């Protein structure tokens, strides 16, 4: 099949999933075309069957507003015509579902020989934060409804979509996934010693884009409670508007010297692999790809019981979930994991097993293929 994949290039779950899907589909013999403003950071080296198409949005001095929807639709039309796309798969509804729908209408009105089916995958904040905003909701709901096929990354997100938007379209749940051959623990004593030197016993980690929804202040707060009982260090991986706030909280709680901010990193497997505990106290999380990556590396996760996280983490078995406001509960679960080696071993192993049994690309990508085939055959 000839597949167009539209995604954001910036660090973020939807771009990662879209890129991994593109690579996996190309590996399975499809002709895959990724459309984005920049090469997504996980696109990696040349791979046969995988082509990147940059979306340019020219500036004009009279416009204060970037015209991304227009330039993206235009690029989809060009790529669809040139490569006879069977499917255009828009990751993140805002505004990708709208641009894809517009491109399809342009192709239909020009009596193009080949008009692709439009698939939209809902990722989370495109519904829960951005898409349901009063300023966008009508257009987003319309564009989702007009997609030929719609998927969501969790049951929770599917329900949120029906609740938050006037969407009637059937939504199929296809969970996020990882390449399990790549996403696994790769221990390194030297790296461990670098981040957890003499005097440090345990390494706690948080990876995100440091936006308010991630509640990074809560990460530091939970860590400070853990650090009262265990000699631990906290690695903050990623960057975003709330990083400064997190470091301020660390200072206020007297744990600054135990906290290290590493900024954005495109190689997180080595960092996860030397860690003992992952904290994810988000306000909302439609899936929690970061938690899945940690579990794949045998790092137990303590997270909020919100959104789709309970579809990824089996509370008490593959990690621990708490109400977002229950920071002491999160700290207690973290301490249990860090001080009980048998519990840690069991939860880490169960987490890894869950990833292997339910979330590996060889299990999930064929579900996307089937979804495409069903639509293309109509
Ligand atoms: O919040 C992010 O990390 C970015 C956002 C995105 O779309 O890039 O993440 C959402 O999509 C991810 C991939 O499907 C999910 O794993 C995240 O849970 C989801 N984020 C939220 O719902 C807050």
Ligand roster = ligand GMT
- Strand-pairing-aware structural class: alpha/beta
Number of helices: 15
Q: What is the second-level CATH architecture of the largest domain? A: 3-Layer(aba) Sandwich
**What is the oligomer described by this structure?**
single chain
**Poorly predicted residue ranges:** none
Q: How far apart are the termini?
A: 15 Å
What would the average pLDDT be, to the nearest integer?
A: 96
CATH topology grouping of the largest domain: Rossmann fold
Radius of gyration: 21 Å
Helix amount, in percent? 40-55%
In total, the number of domains comes to 2
| CATH homologous superfamily heading of the largest domain | Glycogen Phosphorylase B
Question: What this model shows, in words?
Answer:
Helix content is about 45%, strand content about 15%. With about 375 residues, the chain is an alpha/beta fold. The chain folds into two domains: about 1-175 and about 360-375, Rossmann fold, CATH 3.40.50.2000; about 190-360, Rossmann fold, CATH 3.40.50. The protein has a seven-stranded parallel beta sheet with strand order 3-2-1-4-5-6-7, with helices on both faces. Strands 10-9-8-11-12-13 form a six-stranded parallel beta sheet, sandwiched between helices. Strand 12, helix 12 and strand 13 (about 320) form a beta-alpha-beta unit. Helix 8 packs parallel to helix 9. The protein is elongated, with a radius of gyration of 21 Å. The site of ligand GMT has 20 residues, from helix 1.
């Amino acid at each position: 099949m000839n597949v167009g994949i539209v995604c954001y290039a910036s660090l973020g779950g939807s771009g990662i999933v879209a890129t991994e899907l593109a690579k996996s589909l190309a590996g399975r013999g499809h002709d895959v075309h990724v459309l984005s403003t920049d090469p997504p950071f996980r696109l990696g080296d040349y791979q046969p069957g995988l082509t990147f198409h940059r979306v340019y949005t020219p500036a004009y001095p009279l416009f204060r507003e970037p015209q991304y929807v227009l330039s993206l639709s235009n690029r989809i039309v060009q790529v669809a015509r040139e490569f006879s796309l069977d499917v255009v798969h828009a990751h993140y509804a805002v505004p990708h579902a709208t641009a894809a729908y517009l491109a399809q209408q342009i192709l239909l009105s020009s009596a193009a020989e080949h008009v692709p089916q439009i698939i939209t995958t809902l990722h989370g904040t495109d519904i829960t934060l951005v898409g349901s905003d009063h300023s966008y909701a009508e257009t987003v709901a319309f564009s989702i409804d007009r997609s030929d096929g719609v998927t969501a990354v969790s049951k929770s997100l599917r329900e949120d979509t029906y609740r938050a938007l006037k969407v009637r379209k059937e939504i199929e749940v296809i969970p996020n996934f990882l390449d399990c051959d790549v996403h696994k623990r790769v221990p390194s004593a030297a790296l461990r010693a670098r981040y957890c030197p003499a005097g440090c016993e345990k390494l706690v980690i948080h990876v995100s884009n440091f936006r308010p929804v991630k509640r990074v202040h809560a990460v530091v707060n939970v860590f400070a409670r853990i650090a009262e009982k265990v000699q631990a260090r906290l690695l903050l991986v990623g960057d975003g508007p709330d990083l400064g706030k997190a470091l301020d909280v660390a200072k206020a709680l007297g744990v600054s010297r135990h906290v290290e901010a590493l900024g954005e990193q495109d190689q997180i497997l080595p960092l996860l692999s030397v860690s003992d505990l992952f904290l994810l106290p988000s306000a909302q999380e439609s899936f929690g790809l970061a938690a899945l990556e940690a579990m794949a590396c045998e790092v137990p996760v303590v997270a909020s019981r919100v959104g789709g996280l309970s579809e990824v983490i089996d509370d008490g078995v593959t990690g621990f979930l708490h109400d977002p406001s229950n920071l002491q509960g999160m700290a207690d679960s973290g301490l249990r994991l860090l001080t009980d080696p048998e519990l840690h071993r069991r939860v880490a192993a169960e987490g890894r097993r869950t990833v292997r049994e339910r979330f590996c690309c060889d299990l999930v990508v064929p579900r996307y293929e089937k979804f495409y085939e069903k639509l293309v055959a109509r």
